[in-house]
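Bug: token stream looks shifted between consecutive jobs. Job 1:
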Amino acid sequence: MSGQGTRVVLRGGGLSVRVHLRALIVGVVLLLVALGVALVNLTSGDFPVPVADVLRSLAGRGDAGTDFIVYELRLPRVLITLLVGAALGASGTIFQGLTRNPLGSPDFVGLTVGAATGALVVMLILGGGGIQVATGAIVGCLLTSVAIYLLAFRRGVQPFRLILMGIGVSALLEAANSYLIYRSRLDEALAAQVWLIGSVNGRGWTEVVLVGVALAVLLPLVLYYGRHLSMLALGDEIAVLHGVPVERSRAVLALAAVGLSAGATAAAGPIAFVALAAPPLAARLARSPHAGILPAAAMGAALLTAGDWAAQHAMPGNDIPVGIITAALGGVYLTWLLFHERRTRG
């Protein structure tokens, strides 16, 4: 490892990566925060378990009762919050880098709404459940991304046009989702509405594997191409001058971000604002114009894990969906962002 100002170069296995030292520290601290809150979530609930007993169970030396509580009741939910938060944070920072816009997240360009449409079609029209709903969400997300790309394409894809097309497609799909719920039976509508809010309650190992595979496959890819993200954010001409293969890097990063968003939504529903807020919050902590992919992913994991703790304890005896917490915090964040932009420009 060699230092260069505030940057360090990590070398190993024939590969070298140059990272911002403060961003690296911020990412590590955020990861520790996320793991710390996750440990608290494992210990708290209707049957409180001491931290020492949880750690003993995770190490394979717990008793049968503690193992049941940890592995069957709480660990899948905790892992889903960590993995889904990380996937949304990484996806958000890629989209914001590609669109050069702080609002360019999967929430605003319609991808999560498209995933919701796919899931609702399976739930309310085809009568499917479980892994079939997750598959419908993934297919819906992928089809929506293709539609937005084709609608925005005109001798290339301009970021501003991509966001506008995403907002338009999102509005159309929102209307379609409302119609699907309107025409369904009351019990089906209630189940669909809970799914649309976004929740990790009741999720199991199937969802853990789903989003875990998406992260395991796509995260190394986006980390490799993520080194081009800062150059792409400065414009195509500057990126070309620095030797970045613009179209290939943009296509790989966009497809990987769509895959991460699809995996996260399939596992926990369309959880709002984590992908939007995690990258700029991580960037502010790192004092960098753009958050790195790993700091943004760690921030997403920390936000969603803390949000799930609040969802379980905000109203005693009532476990509310975590999507309500993230939506409330996201509204505060969006208000602050607009106020900050107005003050900066004024």
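Job 2, same session, no restart:
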Amino acid sequence: MTSFTFDVQGMSCGHCKSAVESALKEAGATAVDVDLEAGRVAVTYDADKYDLNKMRDAIEDAGYDVA
């Protein structure tokens, strides 16, 4: 498993947290930890099966900007 942390802008509430978690899990994340105050999302995924760019696209498709 591989872990990576994204800096994400625009998250401010529980709905934002749920939207990002769902998007990342659909993109192949096995674990997602959203820190709203810090604007960070830690993701764990299988790098042999899933692409980090796909994770980034999933966050952006959910309506948030990745810094």
